[in-house]
Amino acid sequence: MSRIVMKFGGTSVADLDRIRNVAARVKREVDAGHQVAVVVSAMSGATNQLVKWCQDLSPLHDAREYDTVVATGEQVTIGLTAIALQAIGVEARSWQGWQVPIITDNAHGKARVDRIEGDELIRRMEQGQVPVVAGFQGLEPTRNRVTTLGRGGSDLSAVALAAALKADRCDIYTDVDGIYTTDPRIVPRAKKLERISYEEMLELASVGAKVLQTRSVELAMKARVRVQVLSSFEDKPGSLVVDEDEIMEKPIVSGIAYSRDEAKVTLRRVPDRPGVAARVFGPLSAANVNVDMIVQNIGADGGTDMTFTVGRSDLPRCTDILEKAKAELGFEALIADPDVAKISVVGIGMRTHAGVASTMFKTLADKGINIQVISTSEIKVSVLVAADYTELAVRALHTAYGLDAA
Amino acid sequence: MSRIVMKFGGTSVADLDRIRNVAARVKREVDAGHQVAVVVSAMSGATNQLVKWCQDLSPLHDAREYDTVVATGEQVTIGLTAIALQAIGVEARSWQGWQVPIITDNAHGKARVDRIEGDELIRRMEQGQVPVVAGFQGLEPTRNRVTTLGRGGSDLSAVALAAALKADRCDIYTDVDGIYTTDPRIVPRAKKLERISYEEMLELASVGAKVLQTRSVELAMKARVRVQVLSSFEDKPGSLVVDEDEIMEKPIVSGIAYSRDEAKVTLRRVPDRPGVAARVFGPLSAANVNVDMIVQNIGADGGTDMTFTVGRSDLPRCTDILEKAKAELGFEALIADPDVAKISVVGIGMRTHAGVASTMFKTLADKGINIQVISTSEIKVSVLVAADYTELAVRALHTAYGLDAA
Predict the structure, then answer these.
(1) Phi and psi torsions of B225, nearest 5°
(2) Beta-carbon separation of B83 and A58 below 8 A
(3) Contact in structure between A64 and A74 (CB atoms under 8 Å)
(4) What's the pLDDT at B299?
(5) Is B48 on the interface with A (CB under 8 A)?
(6) 3-state class of B286 per DSSP?
(7) Helix B72-87 and helix A72-87: axis angle, to 10°?
(8) What is the mean pLDDT of residues A233-247?
(9) pLDDT at A207 over 80
(10) HEC profile of B207-237
């Protein structure tokens, strides 16, 4: 007997037939004697529609109201999934974030889970009931307003729930059957990875390999939750996200990732004074705008150009904050470019091998792709390029690092 | 300075432009110095889709899960309406039923409001904030699960909120511009009523004149809430629902109503024993199935045919309960007919005038319409006919009682 959290993404609950399929899969685990908790996302497309409505009404909308609106997607699917489970004889009950409760901070739209009060769920699981928990949702500390965890937050909900319920495994059912060396829609010869380390997965997720959401991998690594990624449509083994120690042969490059959810911001001729970076990035951080890659070119005349990237959805808020502070910061102009993509090569073997970055730069140069920004970490090299070159860059790098399937 | 509750139905919030229009109307009242609370329904069509999903998954679904699913419709519109209000400079905040809270009983799917804890809302209204409250929603007594008030429950929410907030008026904005002598889609020469008594409105609402939901009129009568029905698309006076004393000339017949949401159930050859009616209707009542018209024909041989009507959506549950009790009740067969309509003539003047019923029967007979069941009250005569005859019957009666506009 194991305790399992089963998480189903938007495409797995996209219509009633798929929800019935989810119920059948859950029943199989229940019939095998396991204690099961289910986490579901919104029907695919539903959240996009809700987000669009909020943005169309007001680009700078109140994030608390945004959360009220978008949280409904998961509320629909938990109810429907509970009904589908009951219809095939599985005792089930839906739980919204505020009902569990899943307590978060009050960073609406991208809240962090503080803790999950899971005792009642454990009690019911031990009595044979299947809790169907809304992914993505939380409750802020005053316990009156709904929060959401940001896009892809249902993975985080599932991993956090697995940790809180002391589950033996967290199975993430999705529309792909595992984690690949890159996006198979771009490179048909991409290979499925049997195992991948938390750290590699983290780098891949953070640069847009959207199989698992970044923070869910961070949390899995911290709470040592064993995560399995597998298809909700086929019966075949998925990919395991495990500790690095469990991986025998460490490839230099495990995968190529890309992200089109980036936007580039350049501040022209910022006065080159101590503390100017803090004055630029302080207010952005206070407004929960995450800044990623940063480069600064010091000019000859004491002015400097500062370039950085933010999440594309944060761009209006970011430019609004900086334009308001233009006089104080003293820059000459703000140039925003949403048409960029971040391409990354990732591998734990990189730590002990040189030459990975130069191979990347040479490969891109050979294809005539201009590199706008570079950033590196221990196990990753990322570059920012014009969005139009995304597929070309990914394909060239996949081949250059010998990742193409035979 | 007045305190006003403004309620907007599904067609008034059907898309973003209409939500902006709602916000503009609310702003006008706020700018005039009034304290305003807003109640909104789900976007038109949204609730139907949600209900259909529940029914398609399981006709006998768990009403608690149904409530979880269908409550999302209003949750979407409160968030969007709050955003639209903020976008034009009106301070606003959305409130779900559980957040206010609006405490109901635990009759999921058709809960009754027990009380509204409105102190926080009053405090905020006095500070100039507009609460945007989800119609239709409540919270059952354990305060963990969402309830809904049944179809059309947003009117009830608005009237209950008006009572709890001690509002001077409850304005119900809808897609019609008032209350008519009958449905103008069926009779183009129907006339708008300037005033109508609570009791007449109650009879009209309960037989399907869907301008106001039955229980909302009952509550308005009990709490003496002045209700105005008006169009959210045009600027013209609506109809006032007031105390009978405020109506000078009392017409014999004020209106003709119809309802197609009925289903007829006949139990053939029920043993004619004392207590059999209690044994039939007890379990239906326990399951929250409302029984309306009842007739019983005593046969010569000790058996009896019992016919009654229930809401059409309750029909599967009703037949399920009775078929299971068939042996105990001893009837020979259950015949269900969903293709019926209830036609009613209503008027407070009926109390002091005879001949209303015979005019009705003669008019229908002249058109060849067979009457299946008859029921009467002090100010109403209702008949059940085959659904196909609905329009014909309504038109003939509207003319017969002299209600056609000149």
Answers:
(1) -90, 125
(2) yes
(3) no
(4) 66
(5) no
(6) helix
(7) 180
(8) 86
(9) no
(10) CCCCCCCHHHHHHHHHHCCCEEEEECCCCCC
Give the integer Cα–Cα distance in Å for A137 and A153: 8
So what's the pLDDT on residue A247? 83
Q: Distance of CA A174 to CAs A10, A88, B19, Å?
A: 8, 22, 35
Percentage of chain B beyond pLDDT 70 is 98
Contact B125, B35 (CB under 8 A): yes
Q: What is the pLDDT of residues A41-66, one digit of tens each?
A: 999 999 999 999 999 999 999 999 99
Residues 79-108 of B with CB under 8 A from A: 79-80, 82-84, 86-87, 93-94, 96, 98-99
Question: Angle of helix B72-87 relative to helix B46-57, nearest 10 degrees?
Answer: 160
Which residues of chain A does B16 touch, with a Cβ-Cβ cutoff of 8 Å?
Answer: 53, 56-57
Dihedral sign for Cα B176, B178, B183, B185, please. Answer: negative
Provide the terminal-to-terminal Cα distance of chain B, rounded to the nearest Å.
40
Contacts of A124 in chain B (CB under 8 A): none
Judged by CB atoms within 8 Å, which residues 119-148 of A form the interface with B? 144-146
- The ipTM (two decimal places) reads 0.73
Count of CB atoms within 10 A of residue A357's CB? 14
Identify the CA nearest to A260 among candidates A388, A382, A392: A388
Q: Which of B300, B282, B303 is nearest to B291 (CA)?
A: B282
Length of chain B: 406
Residue A392 has pLDDT above 80, yes or no: yes
B285 by Cβ neighbours in 10 Å (0-12 / 13-18 / 19+) ranks as exposed
Are A144 and B99 a contacting pair at CB < 8 A? yes
Q: Are A230 and A29 in contact (CB under 8 A)?
A: no
Contact A266, A236 (CB under 8 A): no
Q: What predicted TM-score, i.e. pTM, was given to this entire model?
A: 0.74
Q: How far is residue B220's CA from residue B211's CA, in Å, rounded to a whole number?
A: 14
Q: What is the mean pLDDT of residues A5-14?
A: 95
pLDDT at residue A253 greater than cutoff 70: yes
Amino acid (1-letter code) at residue A34: H
Indicate the class that CATH gives domain A3-175. alpha beta
The reply to whether residue B57 touches residue A87, judged by beta carbons under 8 angstroms, is yes
Closest to B378 in 3D by CA, of B401, B400, B348, B402: B348
For residue A371, count CB atoms less than 10 angstroms from its CB and return exposed for 0-12, middle for 13-18, buried for 19 or more.
middle
Ordered DSSP codes for A1-28: --EEEEEE-GGGGSSHHHHHHHHHHHHH
Burial class (CB in 10 A: 0-12, 13-18, 19+), A278: exposed
| Rounded Cα gap, residues B367 and B386, in angstroms | 13
Low-confidence winner among A17-21, A66-70, A187-191, B125-129 (lowest mean pLDDT): A187-191
CA distance B77 to B75: 6
How would you classify the pairing of strands A227-231 and A169-174? Answer: parallel
Query: What is the enclosing helix (H) or strand (E) of A50?
Result: helix A46-57
Answer yes or no: are the C-beta atoms of B349 and B300 closer than 8 Å: no
- How distant is the alpha carbon of residue A60 from its chain centre? 23
